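Chapter summary example: a protein plus pyridoxal-5'-phosphate.
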Amino acid sequence: MNSVPFDQLDGQIWFNGEFVPWKDAKIHVLTHGLHYASAVFEGEKAYGGRIFELRAHTERLIASGRALGFQIPYSADEIDEACNELLKRQGFTDAYVRPVAWRGSEMMGVSAQHNRINLAIAIWEWPSYYGSIEQRMKGIRLDMAEYRRPDPKTAPSRAKAAGLYMICTISKHAAEAKGYSDAMMLDWRGRVAEATSANIFFAKDGVIHTPEADCFLNGITRQTVIRLARERGIEVQERAILPEELDSFTECWLTGTAAEVTPVSEIGPHRFTPGEMCRKMMEAYTAEVTPKLATAEAAE
Ligand SMILES: Cc1ncc(COP(=O)(O)O)c(C=O)c1O
């Protein structure tokens, strides 16, 4: 657990266009986003003072809001500028960036046509994992989740919407209670989908396999890792993967802004041995997120 609760950290938060002291960035208990999950958010990482794929995250935030039926009242340029300015003010080079948009308190009921759309951005320090590749190669253990990723006909399943995380927290808590690090979720059809906050990849015979992102978040890290693999001449198949296939794969890893590339050693009864493909993708991703100037300076 974080030794200091998140509402007690220091610095500033960007709140509806103003930089306010961290402890003053408060909302009322009668906030629609809290009661009805009318909230969307992003998770971004800064490496060496640069937010990786900032514009892609900002565009996804705006698109997630639209999927919930609201327009965030700031342009992508304004949101990017706010993130960059806040990162400077917070004084971190390696950090986590959390924009969140939500419906306010003007109406309290399922209908919230006239509620203000709020946007806040918080940034906290997140030291980089450079150098810990060997430790991560041990792999983490995943349980099988009870809940499934929903049919796109039952929820805006590709948005980064707060409501979709209800089953993620339930599944992650259940897995942790059994001593696992996380849980792998199937989708509504019973196909392999993703972990509770990261996408999933497998490898066998030099080929990478990953579920098609047709009912869950098409992670920006996922897209980056697919591109990096293909640039290296590695075949990547995006396809339906059935749980019965899991034993046929030799390697497995998760991808996500927070997870980066995290090797997996177990999913329920299935075993994997993190090997060359995990290592190659971890190294490629680390090189990709590292600002080129910082890389050049570090080499001097
Ligand atoms: C449910 C879920 N899937 C996948 C991802 C990976 O997305 P990204 O690589 O854009 O961080 C995340 C993390 O944001 C997530 O919460």
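Key point: Residues 101 and 119 are 4 Å apart (CA to CA).
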